[in-house]
């Protein structure tokens, strides 16, 4: 990860995500679909706008995302 990206992530964690984003409730509703699309290689930023930004800035939702992604990739050999 570049130093610039690390600084940007630190700022988002302190101030909250920058840009268009979904709420925690909306993120929870769409998280399964988001991870499935991401693992399939689909452009999630276009299909589910705002979720990526929210996941980068919300530790709780990001934790759910990381857990779900790990589960899905573990259950689907060859997909990662």
Describe the structure.
- There is one protein chain.
- The protein is mainly α.
- The protein has one domain.
- Helices cover 71% and strands 0% of the residues.
- It has 5 helices and no strands.
- Helix 2 runs parallel beside helix 5 and helix 4 packs across helix 5.
- The radius of gyration is 13 Å and the shape is globular.
Structural class: mainly alpha
- Number of discrete domains: 1
Beta-strand percent range: under 5%
Distance between the termini: 19 Å
Largest sheet: none
The dominant shape is globular
The residue-averaged pLDDT reads: 82
Parts with pLDDT < 50 across at least 5 consecutive residues: none
Using only C-alpha atoms, the radius of gyration works out to: 13 Å
Q: SSE order in H/E notation?
A: HHHHH
Count helical runs: 5
Tell me the number of strands: 0
Q: Level of helix content?
A: over 70%
């Amino acid at each position: 990860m570049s130093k610039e990206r690390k600084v940007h992530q630190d700022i988002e964690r302190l101030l909250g995500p920058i840009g268009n984003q979904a709420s925690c409730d909306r993120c929870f509703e769409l998280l399964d679909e988001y991870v499935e699309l991401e693992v399939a290689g689909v452009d999630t930023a276009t299909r589910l706008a705002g979720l990526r930004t929210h996941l980068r800035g919300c530790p709780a939702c990001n934790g759910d995302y990381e857990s779900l992604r790990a589960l899905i990739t573990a259950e689907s050999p060859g997909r990662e």
